[in-house]
Design goal:
Length: 505
């Protein structure tokens, strides 16, 4: 780390717009001859394509991510000229397995993740090596400083890079810095558990703009900054009309608009990441999706009501609570046996994520127990998949699911809920949604549920299964309208509105 800290001279680059994100803009692959190729992510939806598209307006943009290297002493940054969607530079920071494991799998997932999602009992600080987290963030920051032209805009993404804004500001006070937080931000008392809380907050307060999905997370951050490091809170303003202000666990009627700290004014924004409804709706009528749909109808649905739940293996996602609720449904409603089926698409955690192994084992055991108790010769009540379902196939599941059942115990936003609403345009269907997701305050029309309450979970799924078609269409119409009126492009424009020279294509 000393080699990085002792660098005094900072080179100045030519990029006017820079993105810092641990993910790359394309997935790295190889052709049949072993040549490296860059391919789009398996999902064409989401923020990655939107972030890439910003570069259409520049011939000097830079994206900074990491790359895995074999040797721990590797320090050379890989600079690659990318041509799609327009020319930009991809800079990849070299990280050895020891750095990746400590920075991402341990500190980020064992220390930060449970605190961010308000699971303090899962918090583990014993294995965290804070110096490695500092070093990785410093590497990202120095790369940004060396790529940035005078007065450039740097957009930093997510909690993995919490410290990067502070390092950047120290070295390049001329730069404009925006930060977007993709996870929840917890209440002040929970965030305060982190032993590095002051350093994290001081870094984020070096930004010009800090964004969160919903006003509740913005308020939590403002409160933490005020009480823990003495930032002065600016005036509260009414929340934007796209948010539901009353009636959900995460509703807020007003929100802090800015913070002042050490002579700097930090603008706070509440902007939930959107989807690409035009992409989803175009795909929903495509031949590929129709082919997948025919298989779903023939193999799974077979005239039954189809309940879909899509997430990944994570103790925050509420998969165990959902399975227990489904088991209770089958216990009290024998009339539904053979007439309803649950498709649980639960993507397995990446290798090396030991924190999720127990969760995956529990989910698999529950699904097996339910099928063992209730299966008939021609009916299996739970279809369970841990594979990453291709996007076109996922759209087909959206199109054919009578109910989409999303029950995280805590979730920053949950794009699956928005994608379902986009795919169900003019189709009806019911979204049962945990009120502890960020999406619950933007999707008016969802049947809200409390995954901590057996009664509320039971009532919600029962209501979904008997909801009249007319009510389904009315609710879905409201949700589809919300999704179409605030897309992922709108989100990017809102986040970067403070920097008018940055144009979102």
């Amino acid at each position: 780390m000393d080699n990085y800290l002792l660098r005094d001279a900072v080179k100045m680059g030519n990029s006017s717009f820079i993105i810092l994100y641990h993910r790359t803009p394309f997935d790295e692959g190889f052709d049949e001859k072993g040549n490296r190729i860059w391919v789009d992510q398996k999902s064409p939806n989401g923020i990655i394509p939107t972030l890439r598209n910003i570069f259409r307006n520049y011939d000097d943009g830079t994206w900074i991510a990491w790359r895995r290297v074999e040797h721990p002493d590797s320090v050379d940054i890989e600079r690659i000229g990318m041509q799609e969607p327009s020319p930009f530079t991809l800079c990849r920071i070299p990280l050895h397995d020891t750095h990746i494991s400590s920075f991402y799998h341990v500190t980020s997932k064992e220390s930060f993740w449970p605190i961010l999602h308000t699971f303090p009992t899962h918090f583990n600080v014993n294995n965290a090596d804070w110096s490695i987290f500092e070093e990785v963030n410093l590497r990202f920051a120095e790369a940004a400083c060396e790529e940035a032209a005078e007065g450039a805009t740097v957009w930093v993404h997510d909690y993995n890079l919490w410290l990067a804004p502070g390092y950047i500001r120290e070295r390049r006070p001329d730069l404009k810095i925006a930060f977007f937080h993709h996870t929840p931000f917890p209440g002040n008392d929970v965030f305060a558990i982190l032993p590095w809380r002051e350093q994290i907050l001081e870094s984020l307060l070096c930004c010009d703009v800090v964004g969160f999905h919903i006003p509740r997370y913005t308020e939590n951050f403002a409160r933490a900054a005020s009480t823990l490091v003495g930032a002065k809170r600016g005036p509260k303003v009414p929340v934007d009309k796209k948010f539901i202000t009353v009636g959900t666990a995460l509703s807020e009627g007003t929100v802090t608009s800015q913070l002042e700290h050490k002579g700097r004014c930090v603008q706070l924004l509440s902007s939930p990441v959107g989807t690409s409804p035009d992409v989803i709706q175009e795909l929903s009528w495509s031949a590929a999706v129709e082919n997948h749909g025919e298989l779903i109808v023939q193999d799974t649905k077979k005239g039954r009501k189809l309940i879909l739940s899509a997430s990944r293996v994570d103790y925050t996602k509420g998969n165990e609570e959902l399975l227990l609720a489904y088991e209770r449904l089958l216990e009290r409603r024998p009339d539904l046996h053979g007439d309803v089926v649950l498709m649980l698409a639960c993507v397995a955690a990446a290798s090396g994520m030991k924190i999720y192994e127990d969760t995956q084992r529990s989910i698999e055991e529950m699904a097996g127990r339910i099928n063992g108790r209730f299966s008939q010769i021609d009916w299996v009540p739970v279809r369970f998949s841990t594979r990453r379902i291709p996007y076109e196939e996922m759209i087909a599941w959206f199109c054919h699911a009578d109910v989409c059942w999303i029950t995280p115990l805590r979730d920053g936003l949950n794009l699956v809920a928005k994608e379902y609403a986009a795919a169900r345009r003019n189709r009806g269907g019911v979204l049962v949604l945990s009120e502890f997701t960020g999406a619950s305050v933007v999707l008016d029309g969802a049947v809200l549920t409390n995954p901590y309450s057996n009664r509320r979970m039971d009532e919600a799924i029962e209501a979904a299964l008997v909801m009249p078609e007319e009510e389904q269409r009315d609710r879905m119409s409201r949700m589809t309208e919300a999704v179409e009126n605030y897309t992922v492009k709108d989100w990017a424009e809102e986040q970067l509105a403070g920097f008018p020279q940055v144009v979102v294509a």
